[in-house]
Amino acid sequence: MLGIFLTFRVISFADVYIYLAIFFVVLYCLLIVWQKQTAIYRYRFLTGITGFVMLLTLSIVYAQLRQPLTLSSYSEAQVKLHIIESIGSTEQNLKFETYFRGCSSDSLSYLEKQRGIVYVPKSIIKHKPATDSYIFVKGRFIPFSEPNSQFDFNYSNYLRNQRIAFRLIVSEYQHIEEESGILHPVILSARLKTFLRDKYQEAGLNETQLAILNALFLGDKSLLSYEQKSAFSDAGAMHLLAVSGLHVGIIYMLLMSIVSVFRARKYKLLTALVVILCLWFYAAVTGFSPSVLRASLMFTILEFGRISKRQTGIFNLLGASMFIIIIIEPLSIFNIGFWLSHVAVASIVSFYPKVNNWFHFRFPPFKWGWSIIAVSIAAQLGTLPIAIYAFHEFPLYFIVTNIVMIPVVTPILVMAVLAALCSFSMFILQLIVPGMGSLLTFMDDTAHWIDQFPYSTIQHLYIEGWQLPLLYGSLILLLVYINYRYFIYLKYLLVLGIFTIVTIHVRSYFLPEEVLYVAKINGKSVVNHLDKQSNTIYTNVPLSEKEIEFAFNGLWAYCNAPVSYTVRQVGDKPNASPIVSLIGAKALVILPEGARWSCKLEHRKVDYLVLMGKPEIDLKEVRKTMRVGQVIIPSGWKWYQKKWFDGYEEHIENLHDVSKNGVFLVAFRNE
Q1: Of 407, 417, 151, 371, nearest to 278 (Cα)?
Q2: pLDDT of 312-325, one tens digit each?
């Protein structure tokens, strides 16, 4: 893991690591031979150090060989694409995941057989292309770029970690070919998912129910609306929509129950192979996500241990699954699901027996209910630091959610499996699907109901990356003390825990009291003004909740901003007036679209002048009433920009163009 992390974050590609790896492999072998011949074991630490460095250099070489390919510049071309599957839509476009199969430009030949995301405008597409079909399009490639600020979600990095090599916006949609018939595992998985979705919908599932089942059973969240994702996330039920060990475990128990019904347990090897093949077939259908891979590997090793009558330790299983997953895909270490799934299992195994022993019930429903609560608490203990670091929020009612929803997930998955097996018969499907649809509706209604609870989530939580090891170090020391009662570990726990709390508390003293943040979100000019009491967003066009959350979640968490915010749309009527505000000791003026200057500032210096659009006044008129310090342009309108500044560039101290220079961020701390 260290070698892979260093390769993708610090080290550049170099042949020297290959020679270093060969050198340390040879040195390690020589040390082993020497120790066996001489039996001098007081120098055995040399073997350990050499083995560590050998594995480190080998992992660096391996990660360099598995570097993802990405398109790094704008270009236009005619391309041939192989449709994998539809992955949702935006207001204007349909989104498809595709393979690159050919291009009119030789300079893009390195993208051959690479995966990418294609945006096809709804206005030019007549027939939605099917999975496994070829399309010929002309369009513009979007290069991968770094985020504008440290608080923005690094979408380009996310795509690289998914091995998405290119993004293409289609301008001309020319031709569709029939299905290729290629027996590619990814294509087969996409075709099977499409087939099952069509069957479920034909049997009576509506769009809302199908979106939840698509995520819950097939591992595809593309059909979920933003409102559904937000409701399940705030209710603490998002893990139920991400196919994970819970889902694979339910299917494993279902398979074992079927085996016991048919009394096939005496054919141990055969039944184990059938169960393992079924689990891996399900993993293939869901797209081999890290959580499904981890669970499938664990149950596979568990089955081999069962038939060989050997014990299998859970931490050995976790280590084996992590190692195999990283060998298959080194970029998995940058996948949040990879860490959450493994940490959740480790935390449940470590803390569940202790938590479950807090109370003892003889009445079976109470006993069963408390076990769900104990599992929920144990899982949250381990995953909470990562969840806060990644998502900046914590669902308060996760226990209520799990008690209500987990019992519903099992019958849904059982019926989904049965419906998939009986998909050849519409009569059988229509017997199964209505009941499954009612349970899916219950899940959706429950998530929205819990989301409406007061204080359903604690928002704007923030943890620095370097604080994660401190928190997990404290958890490990707590676990060691609980298991072994060594007083020395309690002292270490107290010292590390106090230090961690102090670092989190000290950070609050260095937070800015006021922030001015100017950005461009999907081509929309946005100004965000934060202070301790208010959180105001100025925009020239309406913003959706999804756009606001995506753009500001990291900034607001870092600044510990107020949870409630106000959106003010400026320039929404003719003759809009400028907005004048004070930020600290600095003066801010926002000029909306079509603004006319109707007030005098008596030649007071305006420190920040934000042009939200194309105001009716010119810079000459502005300079008659104020002295401008810094001009900030959120969106690019080059022709008007040139006209506006014509002849006055030397009078502007600073010009910040968000399109070129990234977001404008300035923080103030009142003394």
Answers
A1: 417
A2: 778 888 888 888 88
